[in-house]
Amino acid sequence: MIDALRRGAVPESGLDLLATGLDRFETALDAELSAVASGASVFKAVRGEYGSGKTFFTRWLGERAKRRNFAVAEIQISETETPLHRLETVYRRLTERLATPGFPPSALRPVVDAWFYALEEDALADGATDEGLAESVERLMAARLAEVSRHAPSFAAALRGYRVALTSGDETTAAAVMAWLGGQPHVAAAARRAAGVRGDLDHFGALGFVQGLLTVLRDSGHAGLFLVLDEVETLQRVRSDARDKALNALRQLIDEVHSGRFPGLYLIITGTPAFYDGQQGVQRLAPLAQRLATDFTTEPRFDNPRAVQLRLPGFTESSLIALGQTIRDLYADGSASPERIAAMADNAYVADLARAVGGTLGGKVGVAPRLFLKKLVGDVLDRVDQFDDFDPRTHYSLTVKTSELTEVERNAAAAGADDVELELP
């Protein structure tokens, strides 16, 4: 975790230790995770300005889901790598980023292997003999994928082909079929023929494959799938035709979740207020705007955590200082000289550094956490820990280079409106 902060990145784990102001969401979100684990499906939209902690929030919630034995996947939406209107690409990224409590990405093959093992165990429990095990597993697979096969028969065919290749010792074909099952294009024709499938996964088949994956996850012992579509606001910067297709794809996803097609799915998206409220985003498609409509006219402390949209108010100076003190204490716990860390980077110094970083960003504290924690850990605490004569008040002065800032941080630090970088379509 400390190493990620040193690099200016959001940590992948240990996020409960850093959570500031998220306790008001816990009860409602935990209830939703419990409902999904019981076979429901949930869609959630998170809104917040750049730097307000949207990625942190979804990873924090994903960590809570993983502790409940959910599989987790986080996908960055982008026009070039993962366009939202191409659901086959979204599905491919999902399988590439799929992680479980026991396996890092990509956990697709371990999940499928665990599923076949569970089928064998169930077949044996039903009285199958060793000689008839393969046939019993085939019947169980057909029964459990019956609903999926109505929408995506090739999903079941690929699973069957994978098992046949595996049991015959043909690892090359098994790996290729697994790649095809994960939505990878350009799989060898011989492997596709062996599995009885054709071509590559397309936009219309992707939702059926998601449905199949959820079935496999559930039957292999997982509570469900926690899926994040991050930075959906990038849709505002794509061509108008691609944007319209992407917004309609998002509307379709929401409708499918609410229809009950995806039991065991918790789908969450993140975006800026401009995306949700502007004419280049959600408001461009009236049916989508209706589905995401949420009242934010009251004070943020009265926001409804059960609503379809959650608002992240972002950091204040006091919450940023409190976060810095928490990081300082965590760092000290792992240091050989915790007393020196506490003395050299005391509460007053942490507060001064937080104000200084906020000042370099035009006083916009809400976008300061990443840079502040990077400076605190990499420039101050590391030096205090390694050099006995280093005193940050004497030997360190805050310097911020343009090259180390994100686009949003550079805009916040701009001296005037003429300096603000605009990305035009």
Quick overview:
The protein is α/β, with parallel strands linked by helices. It has 20 helices and 5 strands. A 5-stranded parallel sheet has the order 2-3-4-1-5, sandwiched between helices.
The main sheet orders its strands as: 2-3-4-1-5
Task: Compute the number of strand runs.
Answer: 5
- Assembly annotation: single chain
Counted by DSSP, the helix tally is 20
Sketch the topology as an H/E string, one letter per element: HHEHEHHHHHHHHEHEHHEHHHHHH
N- to C-terminal separation?
37 Å
Helical fraction equals 40-55%
* Proportion in β-strands: 5-15%
* Mean pLDDT score: 89
**Strand pairing plus helix content: what structural class?**
alpha/beta
Radius of gyration over all CA atoms, rounded:
24 Å
Largest sheet: 5 strands, parallel
Cα shape = globular
Structure description:
The protein is of the alpha/beta class. Helix content is 54%, strand content 7%. The chain has helices at residues 2-6, 23-37, 54-67, 87-97, 108-125, 133-144, 146-151, 153-167, 171-181, 189-195, 203-219, 240-259, 273-277, 286-292, 317-333, 338-344, 347-360, 369-386, 392-395, 407-413; strands spanning 42-47, 71-76, 225-230, 265-271, 309-311. A five-stranded parallel beta sheet has the order 2-3-4-1-5, with helices on both faces. β3, α12 (240-259) and β4 (265-271) form a beta-alpha-beta unit. α15 packs antiparallel against α16 (338-344). The longest helix has 20 residues, at 240-259. The chain is globular, with a radius of gyration of 24 Å. It starts with a helix and ends in a 12-residue tail after the last helix. Residues 415-425 have low confidence and may be disordered.
